[in-house]
Each structure stands twice: as structure tokens, then as C-alpha cells.
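Chapter review. Work through the record for ArsA HSP20-like domain-containing protein before attempting the end-of-chapter questions.
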Amino acid sequence: MDNNFDPVREYFTKNGNKDEVFSGIGDYVRKVLAQHFPESDLTQPSSSEQHVRTAQPYQQTKPIFTLQEQIIELHGFVIVQIPLAEDLLNHLIMEANTTHLVLYGLPSGEQKKIKLPSCVRSDSAKAIYKEQLLEIRLPKIQDDHYHQIAVKRG
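C-alpha cells for ArsA HSP20-like domain-containing protein:
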């Protein structure tokens, strides 16, 4: 290999045209590869390239399951509506606290945690399934009374 060969000086300093610079880079790469590999090695695809060409595309065996819930906030309730096939209802377990609704037993094996827009009374929640729609009604906590807070001096 010629140790005096400087690709930067040779291609970038004398070529002002952008297209010529990029073609100069390609020429440089071909020149370096030709010095280290015989011409027949450059034209034949490697075994790994042949493998890539014949590889089959990845096919997912398990369909992705997602819930598209809709949250409706009314004056006294938070309503969560979830389109759901009836056969999935048998495996579904729901739990709620004041700020979240959690669904277990989904086909993906995961749980779905839904943040509620207001604090609710989870012990008074009701769920109805009708026409492929699961509707969970959660009454809001209605505490409009103000309570006096005493301050201790320390």
C-alpha cells in the first residue's frame, strides 16, 4: 500500500463540487478494497449475504392484543367503556382503587392499568357487559365540605 496516499488532500481539497467529492470517496473505497482483496472476492457475495437474501421475514405467531378504552367523566361518575369480545370476559378480573382501574387476565398475559381522571369510590363500582361493550361505572368521591385544619406551634 502506498503510505503517501492521503485521501483527504487528494479528494477534498482539489474537488469543490459536492458530487465529485462523493464519487471521490467511492473511488477511494474501491481502491483500498482492491489492494486488500482479489477482484473475484469483491464480486462474489459472502455466505452471510446469501443467507440474508434467502431469510424469510419475521412472522409474529401471537396476535397483538390491545384495549381501546374510552373514559367519560360526568358530574357524579367516571365511566370506563371497553369494547371486548364475550369470550374474554370469562377470564377478566378487575380491581380498582381511588385513582386507577386495573384489568387482569388479558390475552397478552399482561395487566392494563387505567388512570382515572378523578378520585372514585371503588367499593361502589358497577360493571355491565352489553353488546360487546364492557362499561364500568365508578362514582366520584363527593366531598365538598371544608374542614378546618389546626396549626400546632412548635
